[in-house]
Design goal:
By secondary structure, the protein is α/β, with parallel strands linked by helices. It has 13 helices and ten strands. Helix 5 packs parallel to helix 6 (about 90-95) and helix 10 (about 200-210) runs antiparallel to helix 11.
Length: about 290
């Protein structure tokens, strides 16, 4: 069984999607449609912008979404997912790929998500940090012991967790986790505390948009970030997607559950190959591929 996985923020690079635009009429039409929906030429920034252009949240998230979903669209008959999953932002790409959402509705939600998250970041100075080489329970205990907001945000692979919270809380957590024996504990170059309670204003804003969007019965299950479980129920998918912004990404458990559900090959659709690397760390026997056009 083939599982298709979709990357999240951080996978972007200058030039992403340009080959699709130039080689495929289907892709070109979708990109131009996206430019119209967004109200600015995101393709100019994706294909020939600067790193600073691409780092803007309002650009980064739609850009990765577009690369992933348009690549999936031009694969035509070869794109036959038995199950899908996406890391954080990538869950929206996955929901377009399995036809829960239309391309247009997915893009509008991703754009609103990016704007809402940007506002939440500006409201409360906050950040994230990668912690390597510690058991999950140790990281969880340290986060819980700190008075400021600090929570596990991404369970990426065994021994690799990203934590999220206030600047002061993250600094304190890094100090303690290093004392506990973390191989690495370093801040990430992000604008805020994604997947933490500090994203609550963004969650409320996004919830209104999600509730007002049509979610269809998908062609295959999506394994969602918040509980790592498969779902084909539009109402359940909606509810989990609303919770995603303030809940941790349970990627390790999602991949293990997909393997238990019969996944034999994981195909990464979108920029980069970060997820393939994580999947190999979760199960070194897993077969991984990158989708190409």
């Amino acid at each position: 069984m083939k599982a298709y996985v979709f990357p999240g923020q951080g996978a972007q690079f200058i030039g992403m999607g340009k080959d699709l635009y130039e080689k495929s009429i289907v892709a070109k039409d979708l990109f131009e449609n996206a430019n119209s929906i967004l109200g600015f030429r995101i393709t100019d920034l994706m294909f020939a912008g600067t790193d600073e252009d691409l780092k803007q949240t309002k650009v980064t998230q739609p850009a990765i979404f577009l690369h992933s979903t348009i690549l999936a669209s031009v694969l035509f008959d070869s794109f036959k997912p038995d199950m899908v999953a996406g890391h954080s932002l990538g869950e929206f790409s996955a929901l377009v790929a399995n036809r829960t959402l239309t391309f247009e509705d997915g893009l509008i939600l991703v754009s609103k998500r990016a704007m809402a998250m940007q506002k939440a970041c500006e409201k409360t100075p906050s950040t994230m940090a990668a912690i390597l080489g510690l058991d999950d329970n140790i990281v969880e205990e340290v986060c819980a012991s700190i008075k400021q907001v600090v929570v596990p945000a991404n369970y990426n692979s065994p021994g690799q967790i990203v934590i999220s919270g206030s600047n002061e809380g993250i600094d304190k957590a890094i100090e303690i986790l290093k004392e506990k024996g973390a191989k690495r504990a370093l801040k990430l170059a992000v604008g805020g505390a994604f997947h933490s309670p500090l994203m609550e204003p963004a969650r409320l804003e996004l919830e209104e948009a999600i509730r007002g969007t049509t979610f269809r019965i998908p062609i295959c299950p999506v394994y969602q970030n918040v509980n790592a479980k498969p779902s084909v129920d539009p109402d359940v998918i909606k509810s989990n997607l609303v919770s995603q912004l303030t809940s941790p990404v349970r990627w390790t458990k999602s991949i293990l559950n997909m393997i238990s559900g019969g996944a034999t090959t994981f195909v990464e659709v979108g920029p980069g190959c970060v997820l393939s690397g994580l999947i190999k760390k979760i199960n070194r026997d897993a077969v991984t591929e990158s989708a190409t056009f």
